[in-house]
Amino acid sequence: MTGRLADVSARIENIRQLGTVVNAMRGIAGARAQAARTQLEAVETYAATIAAAIGTLLAATAIPAPSRAQKPAQLLFCAEQGFAGAFSEHVLDHAAPEAALFLLGTRGGMLAAERGLASVWSHPLPAASAGVPRLARQVATELYARIAAEGVDRIDAVYQSWRPGKGLEAAQRRLLPLDPADFPATALRNPPLLNLPPGALLASLTVDYVHAALCQAALHSFVAENEARMATMAAAHRHIDQQLQGLELTRRIVRQDEITAEIIELAAGQAASGMPPAA
């Protein structure tokens, strides 16, 4: 019986240590999500400013509506690490069979391989949101190289975002070519003076817009992945609490059984020796 009590006590200690790890992972995920939200607000303001500039330029410079894509590509923002629920699965569900796939996220790459989804390019996500701008530059460089070498004529980004009260929501956003419908033309009473030809200025703004859009998608994904991990860790914490409650009850029962067994053993010894029970 004593051995069983020791086993139960050891299990309680092990589960408490696991709970400490779970709480630490939850705290790290929360801090990362909060930092990424702060950066996302700045990036969205920057992207909106560029979009407004493009809209103003389109008021004087017409660009054709995009034609049907012949060589589409998708940029899939999956999870970099585990313990994020079905985060990557929801992104991979949007993979188009006719599109060349660019995979971001180590965990997502593993799941894509399990599904038999082949990617033309893959890259890990940064451990901290501060690395997102550098990642966006790397992704953009690869995308432009594919456009030049292989004639890719449409690029969409698929990523997860986190909505309070709703959880994960998958979003798909066109990156290239620009769709005039996404940039309502804004005619100004005093149009800005241009020091560049409209075409060259539009090309430069497009590069900036794509970089901002990549940062937005990556930061949304970063926040969502860490929020999903927090939810997973919260569920694990509840499960650990339930296990601890059950084991604590078991330990009390085992201890009571040991005390009862000792009392019975003492009483039996007294009876066998013929000694009267103590008053």
UniProtKB/TrEMBL annotation:
It is a peripheral membrane protein. GO terms for molecular function: proton-transporting ATP synthase activity, rotational mechanism. SUPFAM superfamilies: ATP synthase (F1-ATPase), gamma subunit. Keywords: ATP synthesis, CF(1), Hydrogen ion transport, Ion transport, Membrane, Transport. InterPro entries: ATP_synth_F1_ATPase_gsu (IPR035968), ATP_synth_F1_gsu (IPR000131). It is found in: Membrane. GO terms for cellular component: proton-transporting ATP synthase complex. Its main location: membrane. Belongs to the ATPase gamma chain family. Produces ATP from ADP in the presence of a proton gradient across the membrane. The gamma chain is believed to be important in regulating ATPase activity and the flow of protons through the CF(0) complex. This is F-type H+-transporting ATPase subunit gamma. It comes from Acidocella aromatica. The lineage of its organism: Bacteria, Pseudomonadati, Pseudomonadota, Alphaproteobacteria, Acetobacterales.
